[in-house]
Fold these 2 entries.
Entry 1:
Amino acid sequence: MTQTVIAANHSKGGAHPGWLGNLLFGGAARVFALLVLVLLLAVMVALIVGAAPAFREYGFAFVWTEAWNPNPEHERYGALAPLYGTLVTSFIAMILGVPISLGIAIFLTELCPDYLKRAISTAVELLAAVPSIIYGMWGLFVLAPLMQKYIEPALIGSVGRIPLAGALFQGPPYGIGLLTAGLILSAMVLPYMVSIMRDVFETVPPQLRESAYGLGATTWEVVRNVVLPYSRVGVIGAFMLALGRALGETMAVTFVVGNSYHIVTSILAPGATISASLANEFAEADGLQLSSLLALGFLLFLLTFSVIGVARLMLMRLERQYG
Amino acid sequence: MTATRTTQAGFTNPSVIRRRKRVNRIVRFLSVGATVAGLFLLTWILAYLTYKGVNTLSFSLFRLDTPPPGSAGGLANAIIGSLLVTGFGILMATPIGILAGTFLIEYGRGTKIAEIIRFVNDMLVSAPSIIIGLFVYQTVVAPLHHFSGWAGAIALAMIALPIIVRTTQDMLQLVPDALREAAYALGAPKWRVIVVVSYRAAFQGMLTGVLLAVARISGETAPLLFTALSNPSSSTNMSQPMATLPVVIYKFAGAPYADWQNLAWAGALLITFSVLILNIVARSFAPRTRN
C-alpha cells in the first residue's frame, strides 16, 4: 500500500506540488524509524566489541568462573558471583512481588469502589514513576538498619534452625545483602507490575465477567475461572516484563547489595549484581577490568533482552487475540 | 470446569455455599491487605523522603555549588547540569521519536518492517538503562577520551526515544482515517496531511508522551554515571564532565559525611517532586478516551 502511494507521487514527478515535501518528510520518517532498529543492533555490537578482550583472555569459562580480583598481581575476572546475585535478588523480588501485585490488581479491578479506583490507580502510576535511586536511598537508610536490628536476627533464630532451608539464613546480620536488595527490588517493581496487570485484566470483556457474577459466582470464582484464564498470556507477560526490569535495575540495589564477589549459600550475606558492579567500578576501570565489566554488561543484555522479548511477544499475542 | 461443578452443587448444598463464601472472604481479605500493605510501604518511602529532605531545603541550595565534606554548600551545579543534560536529551529525542512513530503509522502501517520496528522499540522501552550507559561510553566517551555533558545527553536521549516513538504511534493510531481522507480529497500532499491533520488531532497525546519522557529521564542515574560523570563546580560547557542531580545524590548518599547525606536527601526530594509534578501535568494533557 505504502509502495503504491509513493510510486504514484514519484510518477507525477515535479508536477505534483508536494513532491519535495513528501520526499524529505517521508525520507526522514523512514530513516529515523530504521534508526530505532539500528540502535538495538549497535548496542549489541558495541558490547561484543568491548567484551571481546575479556572473552579472549578467559574463554567462555568467564561465565562460570567465581573470581573478581582487580589487584594487578593476581588479576582474574569471572562473572559467576554477579550473575548469581542478579538472579537471586530478582527471584526474591518476584516471589514477593507476584502475589502482592496480583492482590492489588484484583482489588483494583474487582473490589474497589469507583470513587477510590481513580485515586489508587493514579497513586500506582505515580509510584511507578519515582526514580529508582530514591528506593535505593530508602533501602540504605531505613530498610538496612531495620533488617540488621530486627528482621535478620529473627530469621536466623527461627527459619535458620530448620535443617535444609536454614542454610539460606545463616551468618551475622549485616543488614545489607542479597535479601535486602531483593526486598528493595520487589518494592520497586511492585507499582510497575500492578499497572501492567490492571491493564491486562481490563481487556477481559465486561459481559464475560458479568455473566459469571450473574450465575452467582463469587469474586474469587470470577477471578479464578474467568479473568485469569482469559488474560493468562498477558499476566505472564506482565510478570516477565517486571522480571526484565528487576534483572537490570541498578540504583535500587547498588547501595544495599554489599559488593562481595563470593558466593555464599546464605541470602543474608553480602553479594554482587551485574548492574551494581558496573555502577561501582566502571568509571574508574581500564584494561582487562573494563573489558570484563563490558562482558558482564553483555551477559546482562542477553539476559534482560531475552526475558523482555518473550514478555513482549506474549503481550502482543494478547493484544492481537482480543484487541 | 471448577465453576460449573461448584455452582451446580452450590444451589442445593448449604455447606458448599458456606465454603465458597469463606474462600471468597479470605481472598478479599488478602487482596485488600496487599493493597493496604503496598500503599503503606510506598507512602512510608515518600514520607521519609520528605521528612529528611525538607530540613535542608533552602535558598542556598540553588545558589551554592556542591561542597567538599564539612563545609556549607548547595546543589547549584547539579541542578544546572541536570537541566542542561535533560533538556538537550529531550531536544534530540523528540523530533527523531515523533518522525519514527509517524513512519510506523502513516507510512508503514501493516508492513513487516514496521511490525519489527514496533517490536524492537517496545523492547527498548524496557531495556535496562545501565546498558544504554555502557553503549554511550563505548561509542562516545571512549573514542573521544573524555566524559562530557553531551555523552550524558545522548544517553538520556536514547532512553527517551522509545517512549516518544511508542506514544506517538499510539496517538496517531487513534486519528480517524476519515480526517486524513478529507484532507487528501482537498488535494493536500501526504506530508501536509500528516503535519496539519494527523499531528493536530494527536497533539495532546504526543505532548503527554514527551512530558512523560522528560519525567523518566530526569530521574535516571545509571546511564549518567559513566557518561556525564560529575563536576564539583558549575559549568555550562557540555563538552566537559557535568554534575547532575541523580549522580550527586548517588555520590553523596553513599558517603559517610552527614552534611553530604543531608544534601543528597534535599536533592532526592527536589527530583522526586519534579518528576511527580511532571507526571501529573503530563496526564492532565492526555486525551480522555485513553483507558
Note: The CA atoms of residues 210 and 276 of chain A lie 48 Å apart.
Entry 2:
Amino acid sequence: MSTRRLLWLVGIAGVALGVGVSTLLATRHFGDQAGGDVAATLLIGWSFLGTGLFAWASRPNNRIGALMVGVGTSWMVGMLANTDIPLLFSIGVLLSALPYAFVVHLLLAYPSGRLRSVLARRVVMVTYVDVLLGSLLFQAFDANIPDKADAPANVFLIADNPGLSNAILIVVTGIGLALVAMAGVLIARRWRAAPRVQRRGLAPVLWTGCLFLATLALTLVADGLTKSEELEEAFGGFALIFFLAVPYAYLAGLLGLGWSRGQAMGALMGGLNAAQERQSVRDAIADSLDDPRVVVVFKRPERDEWVDAQGQRVELPQGREVTAISRDGEVVGAIVHRPSLSDDPELLQGVADAAALALENERLEAELRARVKELQESRANIIAFGLAERRRLERDLHDGAQQRLVALSLQVNLARAKLEDDPATAARLLDSARDELRQALEELRELARGIHPAILTDQGLGPAVEALAQRSPVPVEVEGVEEATPLPSQVEAVAYFVVAESLTNVAKYASASHATVRVRRMDDHAVVEVSDDGVGGADATRGTGLRGLADRVAALDGQLRIESPTGGGTVVRAYIPCASS
Amino acid sequence: MRVVVADDSVLLREGLVRLLAEDGFDVVGQAGDAEDLLRKVGAHRPDVAVVDVRMPPTHTDEGLRAAAEIRERYPETAVLVLSQVIEPGSALELLTASAEGVGYLLKDRVADIDRFTEAVRRVADGGSALDPEVVSTLLGRHRRDDPLADITAREREVLSLMAEGRSNQAIAEQLVVTERAVEKHVTSIFGKLGLTPAAEDHRRVLAVLAYLRA
C-alpha cells in the first residue's frame, strides 16, 4: 500500500472514530451534559490526527507524524471512558492514559522521530508499560471507576479490593511522576545540545511539551496527595490546554525551522559572497550550520577517493554525519557534520545545494593539489626506483660481466705463459676462456634487454609483447596489440614494462596455467591488461616490482589497478593517458 | 709463502689460486665469504690474505671490514684487498690505518700476472700496494697553491710509484734509471713538498698519502 493511500485510510478512520465516540458520548445515560466531552474529543483528537497526517505526509520516514496520529487516536478511544456501554467504557478507562505515553515518546523523539539514547528508549518503554499495565491492574481490583453512582460496570474487575487498588494507584502514579521528571531532564539535555540553527524549530514543541508534562505532574500530585478536587481540576485544565497546544506548537516549529533554515541559508550566501576574499566556503558552511567542526571533502573525479581541501586523501565517515554535495546529479563532495544536524535533512540539503556551485573552485583546487601530491610522490618514487635500478645494474655488471672478463683475462695470460712449455694446458685454458667469453656476452645481452629492449625501439610494442609472451614459461595469449599501436614511445615503454613485470610475476608466483595480455585504446587512454588464472593474492603495496610499476604508470599520470582475490587469479590493469597521437 | 684466498666467485678464486700456486705461493686456504675467511686466517695464520671486497651476504664492503679485522687480530698476516671498483676513500681508510702489510688493488690487475704476484709478495713482506688508479686520482685533485705544480714530470712518475708502495729499486727498474737517480728524485720531491724523508717504504707511503689526502 502506498503511503498516500495509507494516510487517507488512517484519516478517514480517525474522522469516523471521532464521530463514533462523539455519538456515544452524546447518547449516554449518565453524568452531565456531554457537550464538553464531545468538544474535547474532537478538538484534541482531530488536532493531533490532522497535524500528524500532515507531518507524516511531508516526511514519510519520520515517525513524529505517526506518533501524533497515535496521540489523537488513543485520545479519542480514551474518551470512551465517558460513555455508558460497559465494555467500551472499560476499554476507554484502560487506554485513557495512553495518549500521554505517546506524547512523552513524541517529545523525546522530536524532531527526528528516533530515540537516540538508551535512556530515552527505556523511559519511553517503561512509560507505555506503566500506563497500560498500571491501568489494567488498577481496574482489576477497583469496582468504582469512575467514582460516580450511575457509572457503567467495569468489565475487567476480578475482585474489588480498595486497599490493593489504592496501593497500585500510588505505585503507578509514583512511577509516572519519575518518568515525567526523567523526560524533562532528557528534553533539557536535547535543548542544550541543539545547534543555534535548530533551536528556533525545536522551541515551540519542546517548551509546550514541558509545560504539559509539568502541569500533568502537578495534576497527578494534586490527585494523589491533596485529594483536592479544585486543585486537581485547575491543574488538569491547564494540562489539557497545553496538551491541545502540542500539535499547533509543532506547526509553529515548522515555521520557525523554515525561518531559521532561511536564516542559515542567508548566512551561507553572505558567507559565500565573502568567501572570495577571506573566508573559505567551509567556514561559511560551518557558520551557517553552527557547527565549527564541519569538514568539507571532495570526491575525485572518476575515482572512488576523497580528499580534503589540501588534496590530502581522507576516509569518508559512514552514516548520519555525512551529507553529499551533488552537481548535475553527480556526487562531487560531502559535508561532514555533527550527527544531530541530520534531524533537519532539508537544511543540510539546502546548504549542500547552495554550496555545490561555490565549492567548484575549491574542488578544482583540491583536485589539483591531490594531483600535484600524486605526481610528487610518483616522481620521488621514480627517482628512488631509478636509483635502485642503477644499483642493481651496477651490481649485475660488476659481479657478472666484469667478473667474467677478469677471469677471462687471467686465463688468457696464464695460457700465454704456458704457450711454449705446455701447449696442451694452454689450449685447455683458451677453450675455457672462449666459454667465459660467450657467457659474458650472453649476460651483457640480458642486461641490455632489461634496461631497454631493442625490439621495442626497432619494431614497436606488438612484436615486443609477442617476444615476452614467447619467452614466458606459462602459455600467454596476446590480444589487440596490433590494433592499439602505435602509441607514443614513452607509453609503449611503460606498457612494455607492465607486461614484462606482470608476466614475470605470473611465472614466479601465480601457479597459473594460462595468461592473457590485452592492449586496447579507450577514449584517450591506453589500457594494458595482464590476467591469469592463478592463485591470486597479489598486493601492490608489497613487493617492489608492482610498486615500481605503479610509479612508472603514475609518472605518465596513469593508474595501475590490481585485482587479485585469493584463489581468483590476478588482473593487472594499467590506464595510461596518451592524448597526443 | 703461505696465502689464503677469499672470493665468492669460484671461477676467479680458482684462477687466483692457480696463478699464485704457479708462482710458488703455498695456497693454504680458500674462502667464499668474510666469515669463512676469518676462520681460515685464524687457523692457518698465513703470510698474506688476498681478499675480494664484495662478498656475501650484502655484496658491499664485507672484504674491507674483514681486512681491517685481520690486520687488528693477526698483525703477522698481511692483507691485499681486490676491488671491482675504485673507491679512493675506502682504499685510503684501509691504508692510513697502517700501510704496513696492506694493499688495495683493482681486481683487473690480477691479469697482469707478474706485477700482481710482485704486489702480493711485497705486501706479504710488510710493504704496501696501492692501485695506480687511486694514486692518479689523488694526484689529479685540484689544490690551491699546489706544490705539486713545481714537481717535474719525472718526479711525478716517481711520486706515483712511491705512493703505490714500490721500493726505490723497483722504481728504478720500472723507469729504467739507476737507484741513485731515484734517490735524488725522492729527496727533491720530499724537499718540494716539505716532507721528512722516511727510511722504510711503508712509512714513506704513509707520508706521501697523508700529504696527498690533505
Note: Chain B touches chain A through 18 residues (CB under 8 Å).
